[in-house]
Amino acid sequence: MNTYFATVARGLESLAAEELETLGASSVEPGFCGVSFIGDSALLYKVNLWARLPFRILQSLKEFPCQDAQDLYRGIQTLDWQTYLTPEQTLAVKATGKNRQLNHTHFTALQVKNAIVDQQQQRFDERSSVDPQTPDVLINVHIHRDLCTVSLDSSGSSLHRRGYRPAVGAAPLKESLAAALIHMSQWQPDQPFMDPLCGSGTLPLEAGLISINQAPGLYRESFGFETWPNFESELWHSLRQNAVDSCRETLDAVVVGCDRNPTVIQQARQNAANCGIETQIELYQQELSLVEAPSDHGVLLCNPPYGERLGKDIDLGAFYKLLGNVLKQQFKGWTAFVLSGNKELSRTIGLKSSQRFSVHNGSLPCQLMKYELY
């Protein structure tokens, strides 16, 4: 059994802990921007394939006291690196955190790399090359006060990159955050779902994938663990085939996305095609003022512009007022959720929220506001 750490967006630690427990993780402990848990290699593969909320799954190798560069070098060399990395494989080191002596992540990463390749040189008279873009083994080092944590990154690229979305709008919502918002809304696949401001489609796409029980990692090209020396290919192919077999062909309820911009709707349709659900969900161009509910009840979830990356050139106050009017007039019987990073704008919706959740969209603190529409 190994100890793992799933990195997640700030504020989503408890939700991610719940998700990991449902996937079979044990000793699950939420922390700051992540969740630690214990499991075997099958669980590691399964979490990378099925977890919708984490960014990366790190396998912890060692923790040791570390005040300066000498401590770091010696601590890294106490690990037997031939277990994790052969000289024929490429490596990269990602360093995060700092302390008084180790206050530059590039220097920290360089020191770690030197300690590893020096050990290889002494043992094999050859060493791994560095590949910062697509390494065979990605090593993660985190410095916190006088402690160093060394891990292997099992995911490779961030897990929020599902592999289905090369086409994005100007301010795309991360897939992992979209999945978290859907979870927070308590939407169930037997309920209609709609996003009237869907952009390139992230929210309806994630809802559609949840509805047909498609593993979020199924369309990724690769994971970091696939190039590890101890990679169990038969186990991985079995888990992946099980994920393919578990996909459902049809939705229990309608999933809809629309947007006024025909270009981003075309992107949304392309993204839906990339993950094989273009015929299951509805995506179409429509002005917000003309949007109508597709049924007499359901969950509406949207991420309107709030002036950080989109919307600076439009009257957002009037836009939010229009959104509120559409919700009141066209979505009676629905429950609506609106994500906003601007409290002043959210007041112009003209509806009283029944609940508010704190969420971070990247580094921006936001609120997810719930409205019961009667």
Automatic annotation (TrEMBL):
<keyword id="KW-0808">Transferase</keyword>
<keyword id="KW-0489">Methyltransferase</keyword>
<dbReference type="InterPro" id="IPR053943">
    <property type="entry name" value="RlmKL-like_Mtase_CS"/>
</dbReference>
<dbReference type="Pfam" id="PF22020">
    <property type="entry name" value="RlmL_1st"/>
</dbReference>
<feature type="domain" description="THUMP">
    <location>
        <begin position="43"/>
        <end position="154"/>
    </location>
</feature>
<dbReference type="Pfam" id="PF01170">
    <property type="entry name" value="UPF0020"/>
</dbReference>
<dbReference type="GO" id="GO:0003723">
    <property type="term" value="F:RNA binding"/>
</dbReference>
<dbReference type="GO" id="GO:0070043">
    <property type="term" value="F:rRNA (guanine-N7-)-methyltransferase activity"/>
</dbReference>
<dbReference type="InterPro" id="IPR002052">
    <property type="entry name" value="DNA_methylase_N6_adenine_CS"/>
</dbReference>
<dbReference type="InterPro" id="IPR054170">
    <property type="entry name" value="RlmL_1st"/>
</dbReference>
<dbReference type="GO" id="GO:0008990">
    <property type="term" value="F:rRNA (guanine-N2-)-methyltransferase activity"/>
</dbReference>
<keyword id="KW-0694">RNA-binding</keyword>
<dbReference type="InterPro" id="IPR000241">
    <property type="entry name" value="RlmKL-like_Mtase"/>
</dbReference>
<dbReference type="Pfam" id="PF02926">
    <property type="entry name" value="THUMP"/>
</dbReference>
<protein>
    <submittedName>
        <fullName>Ribosomal RNA large subunit methyltransferase K/L</fullName>
    </submittedName>
</protein>
<dbReference type="InterPro" id="IPR029063">
    <property type="entry name" value="SAM-dependent_MTases_sf"/>
</dbReference>
<dbReference type="InterPro" id="IPR004114">
    <property type="entry name" value="THUMP_dom"/>
</dbReference>
